[in-house]
Each structure stands twice: as structure tokens, then as C-alpha cells.
Amino acid sequence: MRIAISTGTFYMLPFARSLELIRHAGFEYIELLAHWEGGDGWAMAQNLKGLATREVLRIVRESGLKISSLHDGGGVIEAGAPSVAAKSTAAYLEYGAGEIPCVVFHAPHSKTDDARWWEGYRAIAGSDLREIAKQVIVCVENLLPFDGYQVPLLEPAQLLSFAQEFDIYVNLDTTHCAQAGADLLAAARTLRERVYSVHLSDYDFATEKAHVFVGKGSLPLRECLAALDASVLQTVTLECNIAYDAGNETQTIERLRQARLYAESLI
After folding, report:
1. What is the pTM of this model?
2. Could you report the per-residue pLDDT of 73-128, keeping only the tens digit for each?
3. Fewer CB atoms near the end CB (10 Å): N or C, the chain?
4. Facing residues of 221 across strands?
5. How far apart are CA 139 and CA 170, in angstroms?
6. Are 30 and 4 in contact (CB under 8 A)?
């Protein structure tokens, strides 16, 4: 079992420095979050903006960390898009061949008023993901509804059916379950045979605060992981908020270490 952390945790820092903090906290694995910008002010992995794919991979290699998965940060399907994958994902798989065992995709979603959009796109998306799965393990991540977007696969049973049909896997995001109003334990039990990776964070129902530091929220994280098929689950990736103090990076490293130890205690 790999315990990893998302490189998006410290998106505000120079990429190489963020990896140094992660390594000093005792991590061996990372989930490499690819840079992505959407049309509604959405952005991910801002510290990779302007960095070529090969440069990103070089920095990772020099850090001594290993990639447990690549997170395709998009998922928004634009009209005429040739693939569900962002352009950078193909480049990462080309230049990082043999270094990237898995790609995590957000469930494809589209900014459209057409409530039947997914009916026409489902087979296209599935076939595309199945083709990518010839190179690496492919996981589709559960999402939550977004205003103005058609977001499919919100129900665990729907996500399971999609994964089974196209012979791919699931990344179970614990916070997304809570945000979507789903029962995390019920979702884990439904998806158990297809969950290859987990995005682990907590959720505070009282304040509706997302991606809370693990163990500080309301979710049954230990029971969730116990409900999954241990022979299928390969990676638990921390995707929780970790406070960064520029004046006291030692404390930041200690927070990272505590998160890692907590995740290890769950498995």
C-alpha cells in the first residue's frame, strides 16, 4: 500500500520547494497534480504553470520522490474535445513512461444545458479511458454537482457500472462524497471491488468545510478504508488542507508528518 500526498497541497510555492517539504516529512510517494485552468476561474497546480512536462518530471526525479499517480486536473469536456484527457496528460505518459503507474481522471462533465448530454457522450468517454488504460491504470474520481454543469456518475452505483463496463477503476474522494450528500460508508461498500485509490481528507458537516485535516472532521475514514477490497486498493493519497507558515517551515513539515502517520494508522 502506497501512502502519497497531492503535489497540489502547496500550489503557492515553487514546485521544487514543495517537494522538499514533502520529502522532509518522510513521504516516498506523490500524486502529481497536473496544471489546469478552466473557463470559470478554476485553476489547479498553479505552481506548474509555464513549466514544460519534461521539466516537471526532471524536478520530481531529482527530489527522490516517486509518482504513485498522475491527476489529470481537468474533466470539463469542451465542444469538439478529442479526448477526456487534458493535453498535458498525453505528454506526461510519453515522457514519464514507466514512472507513472496510474492516472486519476475527474468524472467527465460539461457546461451545457443539455440534460441528456451524458447519454450521447458516455460511450465516447468510456472508450477513450479504456484506450488510455492500455498504458496505465485508469481511475475515475467521484465528483459533486456544479452549478451550470452536467455532472454524471454522481451515484456510486452509476460510477461502479461505468467502471465495470469499460474495465477501469475508481478513485474514491472522501470529501467529494460528503459534498455530494452521499453516505461515505455506503459508497465504499458499493464501489469496494473497483477502488484502486482514495483521495483522503476529512469533512466538517457543522461548518460544511471541505478537505479538512484528516481526523479533524466528521467522516468515518477508518471504516471507509476497511470497507474496501485490500487486494484492489493500492494508493491512499492525502488531499487535505495543511497549513503553511512561511516563517516556520519546520511546523509545516511536522503537520505533513502527522498527516502521513495518521493515514498509515488507518491501514
Report:
1. 0.96
2. 777 887 667 788 888 999 999 999 999 999 999 999 999 988 899 999 999 999 99
3. N
4. none
5. 5
6. yes
